[in-house]
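Subject: complex prediction, re-run

Hi both,

The earlier run crashed halfway through, so I resubmitted it with identical inputs.
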Amino acid sequence: MGSITLKNVRKAFGDVEVIPGVDLNIEDGEFVVFVGPSGCGKSTLLRLIAGLEDVTSGSIQIDGKDVTDAGPAKRGLAMVFQSYALYPHMSVRKNIAFPLKMAKMPEAEQEKRVAHAAKILNLDSYLERKPGQLSGGQRQRVAIGRAIVREPAAFLFDEPLSNLDAALRVNMRVEISELHNNLKTTMIYVTHDQVEAMTMADKIVVLRAGNVEQVGSPMELYSRPANKFVAGFIGSPNMNFIEGEGAAKHGAHTIGIRPEHWQLSTTEGAFPGTVGVAEHLGSDTFLHIQLDDGTPIIARAEGERDIHHGDKIFLTPQEGRIYKFSQNGLAA
Amino acid sequence: MATRQTQSLARLMRAPAIILLLIWMIVPLGMTLYYSFLNYNLLNPASTSWAGFFNYKYFYTDPAFWESIWNTLVLVLGVLLITVIGGILIAMLIDKPIFGQGIVRILVISPFFVMPPVAALIWKNMIMHPSYGVFADIAKFFGMSPVDWFAQYPLFSIIVIVAWQWLPFATLILLTSLQSLDGEQMEAAEMDGAPALSRFFYLTLPHMSRAITVVILIQTIFLLGVYAEILVTTNGGPGNASTNLTYLIYRAARLNFDIGGAAAGGIIAVVLANIVAIFLMRAVGKNLD
Amino acid sequence: MARAVSTQTKIGWTIAAWIVALLIFFPILYTVITSFKTENEAISGFNMIPSFTLDSYREVQSQYNYFRPFMNSVVIAVGSTVLALLVAVPAAWAMAFSPTKHTKDILMWMLSTKMMPAVAVLVPIYLIFLRTGLMDTRIGLVIVLMLMNLPIVVWMLYTYFREIPGEILEAARMDGATLQQEIVHVLTPMAVPGIASTLLLNVILAWNESFWTIQLTTTNAAPLSAFIASFSSPQGLFWAKLSAASVMAIAPILIMGWFSQKQLVRGLTFGAVK
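This time it finished cleanly. Structure:
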């Protein structure tokens, strides 16, 4: 139905190698998120799968069938673009029906599917409007509707939420997750936002400079990052890294401790430091601390804590929550 | 960013336009260059011979040539001065909150759409005619004797006509630029205590500088080729007083049938235009990325 | 800059702006008025109120067969524009949607051909026309004006096409549209407004062209610009008739121009000012 296999896929634009060679297996029905900093090649990888770019070498299979040289229309995939890419001269109804019209589906069936999609996405009352008259969130839904009606082998999302405001982004995140639960269709989702990746994915693919750094479930990446890059990228706020003497004590070149894995004390502990800014959020308190050797650290304390700017503080990593890395950045 | 099939199709789609323009550029220019080295007169085509640089030398030593270069410069600079300064002032005036802005815009832009021969005729007969023109009527009303504009101030008269034609263009482009000026920036400057004149020189003018550059360069290209206005009004005279380079070349080619001489003049015109073109291309090129 | 301004200030600026606008427009207005005067009225001093006679219009048509240059103008302006569009649409399209490393160079080069002064190639074009029998033919002028305006047309279309987001074309491709369907259902509807304004501006430019039209025609193919230029010498003192002919020559284009002011800025500055 929707399994996708990449075998040694390479992509170069002229002399610039964007993707040096990627092997990846995506199971049918999985929600896979490609995540990484901007310029890491995640969008290019998605576009290669979509068929919007030619691979330089390697092969792509969908459901065991080689589609490496097939055009985008032949692959049976649907894509939701960052800019939504709605057809400005067509009504919402026509936008959603467009892929069906291209497939020469009977009118009655087209109408049925559009109505169904509109109901799922709460677009019933907007069907006759033009995209220009819709809000960002509504446009997003139309773009998703246009993808749904085709009943594709897989959905491809290219940073679909990056143009929405923060509140709407959370809503749409939940909606897309729910959509996946209902449709159980393979989804590949590209984002630079690790929160989106963590909350939505069955499987996360972390990319850097075109290379796959690690593939795994969100919790695998959180608790067993393969290297310093993944460790630093997954989790919010970012993991703290300590080098030198403090790391040597644990037999590593660098140790990483997540902000939520510190024990705080005002009297004694492994790392003494001074509190800088304290952000009191009610549910949590985030402390920006400078260790006595100068290393900046962020620590999260649950609930409201009576700690303020300038206070002396001692930090101790929780047992078993110390990530150790060798000199080349790999997990030790 | 596209696939291989679209690339080759794109090449096919570009080809006709490129090939046509290539021919349009190379063939006539090549012929002009070739003729410029010939003694070739249409009245006596049998005695055509190789001339070397004679045509260029002839042009170079002809006082009419230098006069025409001077007239070309005065015409271009005069029109630029009037249109750019006038354009800035009028653009700022139209940009103010006024009633009927749309109609004012339409009235101001209109002269641009008047074809050159008609513009020249209107001014020559209706406005600047020594006995029946509006200017003459005004002069008579004040008890002064009317001026015979085209006899006494031929080049100036042509500058007035051409400036009238191009003032709308400058105004419209400068107005477009003015309207993209950030209102908050202006208000910030007002909060900072900058008086109106300083705001104009430190904010408005720098903001419009790009548009002003474009106006100057594009107008120059067209102004170097002013022709019909001269043909209809003064015929380049009296003497050569209102003959520009374009008109001089036209006269050599069409009235004296001197193909070689006209071709040499044409090559000089190309060199002149290229100097301007280089600057224009830079200004426009920046906008491509 | 939505700022409250006192009505007094607004009235002050309004009066100033209208005075300037009317001064600039005056020569055109006075020509229109004169065209409705009798020949006697026309030369008997300043007078803004004509006797509203249509004689001049009638005489221009009957004496000079005005309809012929008018139709020549239409054929030449529209013909050269349509021909230029036929060549330029695919080219601009390819450059906007499948740009290569050289697209920018090609565009700049096209622009540079526009900078070539017409008079520089007067001699060869004139001789070619004499020898090929193109002299004083509509088709000859159509070809020359088409080539002359081709760079502007390509440029204008290019700037319009570039505003069509590439993602929309990709979306159509993902939605299963073939190239042909992509062009018919998505690109054309989105490109039509840009093509229309390019057409409009180019018709205006071609209509008003007055160098080649004067050089390359005598009577048969002479469009209005050449006709009016020749009209000037013997008819210098028949001002009402001259005005009527002028009004008919500029009216259609003036009206088109009013509708295309916005596109004008963009087309004539090669997208450098928007």
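The CA atoms of residues 28 and 247 of chain C lie 8 Å apart.

- K.
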